[in-house]
Amino acid sequence: MSDENVGMSGLTASEASEFMRSYEKGMWTFVFIASVAHWAVWEWQPWFGM
């Protein structure tokens, strides 16, 4: 590990890339679930008088 560059976060470039992929997957999962929840509530009881 001494030959790999370590950034300010303490992660190597490959570790940071792996972390970012995991973070993005979690973010898109959250966005999908939140979107479905908002759609379900809209179907149940629309807001803003629409």
TrEMBL record:
Localization of this protein: Cell inner membrane
Its job: Antenna complexes are light-harvesting systems, which transfer the excitation energy to the reaction centers.
Keyword Transmembrane helix: yes
Membrane topology, record value: Single-pass type II membrane protein
Protein name, entry field: Light-harvesting protein
Keyword terms of this UniProt record: Antenna complex, Bacteriochlorophyll, Cell membrane, Chlorophyll, Chromophore, Light-harvesting polypeptide, Magnesium, Membrane, Metal-binding, Transmembrane, Transmembrane helix
Bilayer-crossing regions: none
Chief site of localization: membrane
Database matches in InterPro entries: Antenna_beta_dom_sf (IPR023624), LHB-1/5 (IPR002362), Light-harvesting_complex (IPR035889)
Organism this protein belongs to: Candidatus Paraluminiphilus aquimaris
Transmembrane helix recorded as keyword: yes
Family assignment from sequence similarity: Belongs to the antenna complex beta subunit family.
